[in-house]
Amino acid sequence: MNPFKAQPREAETGRERRATRHDWQTFEIVDLLEAPLFDLIDEARAVHRRYHADGQVQLASLLSIKTGACPEDCKYCPQSAHYAKKTGLERESLLDVEDVLSKARIAKDAGATRFCMGAAWRQVKDGPEFEKVLDMVRGVRDLEMEACVTLGMVTKDQAGRLAEAGLTAYNHNLDTSPEFYNEIITTRTYEDRLETIANVRSAGVQVCCGGIIGMGESIEDRARLLQELATFDPHPESVPINALVPVAGTPLESQAKVEPLELVRMVAAARILMPASFVRLSAGRSALTREAQILCFLAGANSIFYGDKLLTTENNDAADDRALIEEAGLRIKPACAS
Ligand code: SAM
Ligand code: DTB
Ligand code: SF4
Question: pLDDT tens digit string along 255-272?
């Protein structure tokens, strides 16, 4: 067998599905995160080639459809109302459906296949704003793009309505370990998050769930985050790995910059634990050199946020990203036939 030739994704066969583990122990993951770097990368690379031999990178564009004034107190987040006086972030009400769809069209023309829409809400409220979001989802799907939203907590019923509108995936992160979580967020619990994720899953919508490094957590906390993610059965279809963007005015503004190789390690461990998932190199990418990004791809990242802006902070230049993917010998994931 030629290992360089694309093989069918083993994850799609029943046999391999059973072999995917959901019972990783914390010490095993700590061992991975602390392994000699090249051993870790070798292992992640072997998994990656087995499951993603096509060398494709998914381009997901992101738009903040409702910015700021969020009642939650997530210490990393510039959109929390708790820090608004210090961050000076201007709040915006929910964008119009047509505005959002014109941004989605631009993203599609630039090569993105997924369009992700984020709202700074604690939770979804039934009513005209939710109806507008459902129209946005339908509109993005009509453009033949994947649609993802992140709207805070959702009920089963709301997740069902999103599914009916054609939503591809719902993003709701665990952010960190259950043990470190209360240091970062006090206004909603880890259990609340798990419940939302379960509601999304039960509606038949794909789960996009990951976390952040660089908030002062220990290696053990990182391992516990990954362990929680890998315990989901099935694994989240996409796993965003964010490096903290320390925004001035937030309580985490003075956190030390994430060491790029720490991000490489986190990506590699996520790849080993969740072989079939998209591992998305997410916030914090603009602080990486081209070489550090390539190391992340080598370690198993196969998705990025694409477009000059994340939600409120800057992202990498789109043309630079396309050039980087080409130089690394990778390929942009084309739109799905469906
Ligand atoms: N309000 C919704 C929620 O919390 O689920 C959706 C938007 S929220 C901004 C989505 C995710 O972005 C957070 O869970 C967090 O992981 C990530 N994020 C937010 N601010 C960040 C920052 N400054 N650096 C890195 N990641 C960040
Ligand atoms: C995720 O894990 N990262 C994205 C997306 N999901 C919604 C958000 C990153 C936000 C970074 C800070 C900002 O731009 O406001
Ligand atoms: Fe609100 Fe989401 Fe930011 Fe937390 S991460 S403050 S819930 S927008």
Answer: 999 999 999 999 999 999
